[in-house]
Amino acid sequence: MIEDRRLLQKLNEYVGKNQSVATVTVVRAEGSTPRGVGSTMLVDEEGNLIAGTIGGGVLEEMGKRDAKNCIERNQNRLIDYDLDKSSESGNALPMVCGGKVSLFIKVYKAQEKIVMCGAGHIAEKLCKIAHILGYYVMVLDHRKERLTPELFPTVDRFVHGNIKENLKDVDIDHNTYVVIATHGHKFDQDALEAVLRRDAKYIGMIGSLNKIKACFGNLMEKGFTEEDLSRVHSPIGLDLGGETPEEIALAIMAEIQAVKYGKDAPYLYKSR
Questions:
Q1: What is the predicted pLDDT for the residue at 128?
Q2: Is-contact 47 65, C-beta < 8 A?
Q3: Within 10 Å of residue 36's Cβ, how many Cβ atoms?
Q4: Distance (Å, whole) CA 33 – CA 38
Q5: Among 55, 94, 96, 122, which residue carries the largest CB count within 10 Å?
């Protein structure tokens, strides 16, 4: 019971941090096996054991490896193992227990994430749309009065303070979409500089062609290359028309969806 509680606490902690994990549970055990039905372990996306155990040894190592693969594929699986190295079955492990075990691997995949740099009027509208579409939404701004549930009722996490510095501590991976729309050109450039060489799937920055040219020129003087800057969707959004915060937010989210699904679309940044 104590082991189960610790595992559930860890599962809740990782899900709360929006990190991918998987539970590996013994659902069938015949003959001699390391542990019985119900034994569970929690594994992270790198295949590391976080909590619990299914008995250690070869079976546990195989379970961790298979859990890592399931997380990568975002796929739940039921896997049968034969714990007899002399068995002719296709999934025999180098063990002498002689029993049979079935493991059920349940994946808790991290949500795709919107990192919204700036808490302005466009951000208010964009965050609502992103929430409807199922994204985990984070907003960064140094203006504490803007980071409130009243303005952003659907946001999962607020990060107050210097945006450029705080971005260093934000986990930006291939499931992350970064939108830069602060209230000043300098803050936009600082945010872009902080994420440009990170593993984001999408980076978009709002701005006019003159602003973009100046920003990109400054960053190239700092050592960034044209290849680095070619990743940036700026001007941001699809060419849908409209200029209100709601319309701009819709164009940005439409662009993110197009990138997510690998669709060709009328991207504004390709016309710069």
A1: 97
A2: yes
A3: 12
A4: 13
A5: 122
Domain boundaries, the chain: 2-108, 113-271
**E runs forming strands in the chain:** 21-30, 40-44, 49-52, 77-82, 100-108, 113-117, 136-141, 157-160, 176-180, 202-205, 232-233
pTM value > 0.90: no
* Res 83: pLDDT: 77
- The pLDDT value recorded for residue 184 is 84
Which neighbouring-strand residues pair with 167? Answer: none
Edge-first strand order for the sheet with 176-180 is 157-160, 136-141, 113-117, 176-180, 202-205, 232-233
Domain 113-271's class? Answer: alpha beta
Alpha-carbon distance values, 254 to 104, 163, 203, 251, 261 (Å): 37, 25, 14, 5, 11
At 16 the pLDDT is 85
Based on the number of CB atoms within 10 Å of its own CB, is 150 exposed (0-12), middle (13-18) or buried (19 or more)?
exposed
pLDDT in tens, 69-91: 999 999 999 999 887 666 556 66
Cα 115 to Cα 67: distance, rounded to the nearest angstrom: 28
